[in-house]
Design brief:
Blueprint lengths: L2 H9 L4 H9 L17 E5 L5 E4 L3 E2 L7 E2 L7 E6 L6 E6 L5 E6 L9 E4 L4 E5 L2
Antiparallel strand pairs: 1-2, 1-9, 3-4, 4-8, 5-6, 6-7, 7-8
């Protein structure tokens, strides 16, 4: 699989907002994402390369305005130090195509203690029948 080719082809069909968030580390407006209230059984996948990132059972309502998860699927994401805007955070990217997904925080309500705060525009939902 030629990831660079997939990324270039996908850039041709993404909206300006999707490109800004996925490739420039932007953030969608809170409470605006189509996946915020997605509660069906399924998988949340990378919008660029379709890698499965999060299972629906890991999703929870954080009341922050973005889809939140307490764990990613094994080897699905990578972590990058982010020191923009005068703060230190951990950016979460797709491990396959390196697209920006959001950030991870240590204030999750489950045993993992993690809150993956993701942008809806970075993901597609695949329902499990």
């Amino acid at each position: 699989m030629d990831i660079e080719k997939i990324v270039e082809e996908k850039k041709k069909v993404l909206t300006n907002e999707e490109k800004h968030v996925l490739f420039n580390g932007g953030t969608e407006a809170p409470f605006s994402g189509k996946l915020l209230n997605e509660h069906r059984d399924g998988m949340f996948c990378c919008k660029v390369c379709n890698t499965q990132l999060f299972a629906s059972h890991a999703k929870f309502d954080s009341d922050t305005g973005w889809p939140s998860f307490d764990q990613a699927l094994p080897n699905a994401v990578e972590y990058v130090d982010d020191t923009q805007f005068g703060m230190t955070r951990t950016e979460v990217r797709c491990a396959t195509c390196h697209a920006h997904l959001g950030h991870i925080f240590d204030d999750g309500p489950t045993d993992t203690g993690k809150r993956y705060c993701m942008n809806s525009v970075c993901m597609e939902f695949q329902e499990i029948a």
